[in-house]
Amino acid sequence: MSHEVVVTNEWGQEFHPSKLYYKGLLGDLCHEKADAAGTVMFTPTERLKYFKFLVSTTKEMSLHFIFRAPPLPYSHNLFALPFDTNIWISCAIVLSLCGLVIWIIMSWEAKVASFAANRQMHNENAASFLDIVMMQIGVVCQMDYFHEPRSTAGKIATFSLLLGFSYLYNAFCARIVVLLQATANNLHDYKALYEAKMDMGVEATSYNIYYFSHPNSRTNEDYRKLIYQKKIAPNNKFLPATDGMRLVQNSYFAFHVELTTASDLILATFNNQEKCAVRKVNSIFKEDKPYLASPINSTVTEYLMIGLVNSHLKSSSSSLKSVF
């Protein structure tokens, strides 16, 4: 029995969402120009009525977004980070209570003749509630304020407020300096990556181009559409692996690429500091093992299935023997 090898330069994808016209390797199988594929392919549900998937000869395709961890301002409001929510709430409560105490004291001072005479000497009106609010804002912003208490109790309350918020202001500034030097380590999935202020790109392989560009069952459709329309399509960010990884190296750029390819380029071109900053998150593609396939109605499908499964089992058995 003779056989012929048919060579094509691409997998080929669906051209139309309802009429599945194929090209490339898939086209050769679909139109029965070939009896079996020599290269593995993905197994979306729309292909099941056209192809018989025989055996998986590889592990799951390891596709990831590769990027260097960006500074915190890329994904956070830096001014809210120095303290957690409870501390911010506590500061607001303390500020409000101190303002209330000072307002009560200064309202009492307005009724005391000696304090009233002193205010008239300096052409100063009695402090209203809004004046106290402005005073609290001045304390928080480390600014001067107009009205000053004249009683000992008022001065003690004001001094305590100023001292407490001076320490708080110093702690806030010191924490900001630390955070400016920190990197964002909370980007654990493509959703967080999309929300961050990072550019994104995709390796220019036929399956990436198709699955990012068209609605399909292999991706999270909501985020596929967002990423493609907002990040990929405007500047055509389908790039060769070398160009994409160069952008990862030189900027804060997330590149969707096969992990082995990315690892080889990182080892070849990144320095140690850049390697330490590299992060990865899972692809928008659903987990899928690629399979060898044949046309659904091929007369040799069963023979291929039996032969490939036996070959796969023998190779697995040999690997186990070599290990043990």
Automatic annotation (TrEMBL):
InterPro entries referenced in this protein's UniProt entry, alphabetically: Insect_Ionotropic_Sensory_Rcpt (IPR052192)
Keyword DNA damage set for record: no
Subcellular location: Cell membrane
Keywords in alphabetical order: Cell membrane, Glycoprotein, Membrane, Receptor, Transmembrane, Transmembrane helix
Topology versus the membrane: Multi-pass membrane protein
TM spans (from-to): 87-106, 126-146, 158-180
Keyword Transmembrane helix tagged: yes
A cellular component term, taken from the record's GO annotations: plasma membrane
PANTHER family in the record: GLUTAMATE RECEPTOR 2-LIKE PROTEIN, IONOTROPIC RECEPTOR 20A-RELATED
Name the UniProt record assigns to this protein: Ionotropic glutamate receptor C-terminal domain-containing protein
Originating organism: Dendroctonus ponderosae
